[in-house]
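SEQUENCE-TO-STRUCTURE ENTRY
===========================
What this section holds: a protein sequence and its matching fold, both as plain text.
Question of interest: how does this chain fold, as expressed in C-alpha cells?
***
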Amino acid sequence: MSAPENPQLEPQPLNSEPPAPAPFVVVPFAAPAPAPQPTLPAPRAGENPVWSGWDVLLILVLTAVTFVVAQVVVIPGLFRLVYPHGNLTDLSQKPALALVSQLLLYVVMAFYMVGLVQGKYHTRFWQAIRWNWPGIAGVSFVGVGVLMLGFDLLGRFLPMPKNTPFDQFFDEPFDAYLTAVFAVTLGPLMEELFFRGFLYPVVARRWGAVSGVLLTALPFGLMHFYQYGNSWGAVLIVFMVGVVLTTVRAMTKSVAASFLAHVGYNATLMALVAWSTDGFKHMEKAGMLLFRL
C-alpha cells in the first residue's frame, strides 16, 4: 500500500519563482468637510439691489449740488447770452429757465445713475432697476393712472392755496405746452427711476414692502411742497399718488409699470387742463387741477 501524497513535500521545480507580493495600495487622504457657512437671511420683499442706501444718499446730494449750480451759475449765464439786457430778477421768473435747469439736472442724474450701476457694480442698468417692460398689458397701468384722478375729490375738502409758484408755468400758452411735454416724458421717467427704481428696493430690502411703499411715497410728496405753495393738502394728495405708484412697482416688480401709471395720471390731468382752458388760454378755468402735476 502506497503512502498518501503530501503536496507540501513534493519537490518544486528549480525554475519556479516565489509568488508576487500583494500590490501596495495608497489610500488618498480624505480632507475634512468644510464647516457650514452661516446662511444670510433672504432680503425682505424679494428686493436685493446691487447698490446700497449710501449710493441713494449720494444721488440726492449730487442732485442738490447740481440744482444749486444750475440755478446760480449755469442757467443765469446762459440767459445772459440770450437776453444781454434783461433784468436777472425778471429772467429768474421765466418758466423756460426752470425747465432748462430741470433738464440739466435730469441729464446729470441719468449719467450718474447709469455710471453707478454699470461702472461700479458692472450690471446692466435697465436690468438692475427692474424696468421689465409689460408689453401690451402696459395699457392697463395707464388706466391705473387715470383712475388716480379720484384723489381730486379729496382736494375739495382740504385747504388749498389760491396761487402757487407752479402757476407761472401756465401764464403763456407756449410755456404751458412745454410744461405739458415735460410732465408726460422726462418728469415721470426721472422720478420713477429714482423713487421706484433706486429708493424703493433699498428701503424694502431692509424694512419690507409696506414700509418701502410708505417711505418712498413720503419724500415723493414732500418734494412738491414748495411747488404747491407750501400746501400740506396738496402734498397729501401727491403722497397718496406716490403710494399707488410704489404699490404698482412692488406688485409687478417693474419700474416701467409705475412709469406708465405716472404718465397716465399726468397726461390725463394735462388733457383736462388744456380742454377746460381752451388750450391753456384761459387758465382761470383750470380750478385746482394744477395742484396734482
User: Anything to note?
Assistant: The chain is about 60% helix and 0% strand.
